[in-house]
Specification:
mainly alpha; 2 strands
Length: 232
């Protein structure tokens, strides 16, 4: 007696359709869960490889953005402090010029000297406290900023230290300078003017580097890279 197998063609067709639908639903569910069109190599090996590279670039750009943001914040602190020191020097010049008047009486000269010294000491307070995230660009130290500007960390930008402490090179006024005598006052006028010119030059350098870093940060189009990752 021969052996025979009965096949239900309609049932097989229905089963195939069910399997195909289940596979499609699984793929759709995966895309919903991950938010990615291609979430694994088995979806499309070639496209997945491209997607992974884009995702790596995205993580790199995220790190670049964080590095630049920290740099901008540190420079902003230095800028604000430098601007305040510039303002103080302007006030100090007024006191020194007034004290350089040979006809000034002793009490007035003493009062001007006290004001001058109070302003002088504020410079020290400002430079000491101009710190962000442990970095101070204008104190008597050597802190610098090295910011990453490319997702492969091969390109960087360096922000130099600018010493704005009393007697530190940019500020000629010393920690003990006074205008208590006519001679002291005349000398102080020159020192204040030189200091003001130097501090304003530092301000310009800080402003320029801040603009450069902000421009680089803006060019890190993380949204565009992320959009490409989502499309693949």
């Amino acid at each position: 007696m021969g052996f025979s197998v009965n096949t239900n063609a309609s049932a097989l067709s229905a089963l195939q359709n069910l399997n195909a639908t289940t596979k499609s639903l699984d793929g759709t569910q995966t895309r919903i869960n991950t938010g990615l069109r291609i979430s694994s190599a088995k979806d499309n090996a070639a496209v997945y490889s491209i997607a992974q590279q884009l995702r790596a670039d995205l993580r790199g750009y995220n790190a670049v953005k964080q590095s630049l943001d920290r740099s901008i914040s540190t420079i902003d602190i230095a800028l604000a402090a430098s601007s305040s020191i510039s303002d103080l020097l302007i006030e100090m010049k007024e006191k020194a010029v007034a004290a350089a008047d040979a006809g000034l009486d002793t009490d007035s000269r003493t009062a001007l000297a006290q004001d001058f010294e109070a302003l002088r000491d504020q410079i020290t307070t400002i430079t000491t406290n101009a710190e962000f995230n442990g970095t101070n660009l204008i104190d008597g130290g050597t802190d610098i900023i090295v910011a990453i500007t490319s997702p492969d960390a091969q390109q960087k930008i360096t922000i130099a230290h600018e010493d704005l402490t009393l007697g530190g090179g940019n500020v000629d006024i010393t920690a003990t300078q006074t205008i208590a005598t006519l001679t002291d006052a005349v000398a102080a006028v020159t020192d204040v003017e030189n200091s003001l010119a130097n501090v304003n030059a530092v301000l310009n350098r800080c402003i320029n580097i801040s603009h450069s870093i902000t421009s680089i940060s803006s060019s890190c189009n993380i949204t565009a890279v992320n959009s490409k990752c989502r499309r693949v």
